[in-house]
Specification:
With 81 residues, this protein is an all-alpha fold. It contains one helix and no strands. The relative contact order is 0.04.
Length: 81
């Protein structure tokens, strides 16, 4: 193959590789973006679930404190009479 034909063929191969590489990069970028969106959505769900559990814990702690206070008051009344 004469030198000029080799150069032309080489440039064509490089162009083809560049195009394939660009398509692969675009594909990977789309996959990464989708994975990032999924991760952000899951994180948001976890944050909401954690907040819900915290609120439930606070409510249960307040209820337990009220029961303890009522128990102490009831014991005090019983021991007085």
């Amino acid at each position: 193959m004469p030198n000029s034909q080799w150069v032309i063929a080489s440039h064509a191969n490089h162009r083809s590789w560049d195009e394939q590489n660009a398509l692969l990069v675009e594909s990977h970028e789309r996959v990464i973006a989708e994975l990032a969106e999924d991760a952000e959505a899951k994180l948001a769900e976890e944050v909401l679930a954690a907040e819900s559990l915290r609120q439930e814990k606070d409510t249960l702690q307040k209820e337990a404190e009220e029961v303890q206070i009522m128990t102490i008051c009831n014991r005090a009344r019983i021991s007085v009479f």
